[in-house]
Write a structure and sequence with these properties.
Length: about 200
Amino acid sequence: MPTSTTNAILKRIRAMHRGSVFTPRQFARLGTRAAVDQALSRLQRSGKIRRLTRGVYEFPKIHPRIGVLSPSPEAVAKAMAERTGSRITISGAKAANLLGLSTQVPMQNVFWTEGPSRTIRIGNQTVALKHVAPSKMIGAGTEAGVVIQAVRSLGKEGLHEIPVHALARQLPRPVKRAVRRLVPTAPAWSQPVLNQISA
């Protein structure tokens, strides 16, 4: 029989959008850890939520013909990192592709984190967290961070390939301001180009 903790958690989950990924930590105020774990287990058995891996659950999005859809890799990575109180940022290769600095589309969903490395498979997709040094987490989770990761991924030898002026026109002013604030923490060799991009 559902408990008050189960009902409270189910109400919170139903307020989320379908496809949301979450961990028990998000319901810490609704009961003890044991009660929350039991509630999530009960909801999983009833089919209301789906367990993706240990400590990571999803409020599944269901297509009328295809059935249960896979959650976004970003949502899964964020929830995986949240379990250890860590941050994530997209890999340099992904950042470069997003900004049009590289035509290569990364085949794997790899995210950088200062937390532990971990890989999980959901259906036909793999989501991996790769531990990196804190210096590679500059601007983690922000658009400015994506710019810095993209430039960094090209290395010193690839700086001449960056269409600086085109990229500068592409970036909104708030992002440019955020990049300027982060420039002093970026690798010294990348700072001149980042200053040009954010001018």
